[in-house]
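Run: sequence + magnesium ion -> complex structure.
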Amino acid sequence: MERKPLIAVYPGTFDPITNGHLDIIQRALQVSDRLILAIAKNPKKGPLFNLKERTDMVQSLVADLPQVEVHSYAGLTVDFARQMGATILIRGLRAISDFEYELQMAQANRKLAPSIDTVFLMPSQEYFYLNSTLVRNIAADKGDVSSFVPPIVEKRLREKFGR
Ligand SMILES: Nc1ncnc2c1ncn2[C@@H]1O[C@H](COP(=O)(O)OP(=O)(O)OP(=O)(O)O)[C@@H](O)[C@H]1O
Ligand SMILES: [Mg+2]
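>> structure
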């Protein structure tokens, strides 16, 4: 049976993009035809890297993947997803710490946009405890983050913190 191409949106802060994000991107490509990486513009988080820096890093890491596009957005994720014609939201699910929050968001998003489903993907075991906060903290203390992020991100972190 013919079906419409599946468009998925993978939203996040990507401050900075880590090997965990990249793992989820690879897996998301197995369940979508077109994958839109949606970089949240003004997260209340007060990001270390500004939007352009975050976008540039992501862009350079997915440049060789034709099914992947990089966008930034403000406002509700589901509104952005709808504008893009997406029917899937991708979220990574790590240790139990993610679970409550992600469940709440998925339920809220379903209420706001019933035609969009959240698909949770589990990363490879080595990335189960990895988040961008950990990377920022280690890099700020001039620790070695080479097993957590790709080399171009490591370089940007080094420039940021001077090592
Ligand atoms: N190591 C990882 N394994 C699986 N999913 C991940 C991983 N890192 C991030 N994600 C997922 O990517 C999405 C976007 O996350 P986000 O960009 O906020 O990164 P984060 O690592 O949670 O950053 P922060 O520590 O700043 O909150 C979320 O669904 C998150 O669960
Ligand atoms: Mg997080």
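>> summary
The first strand starts at residue 7 and ends at 12. Residues 7-128 form a domain with the Rossmann fold fold (CATH 3.40.50.620).
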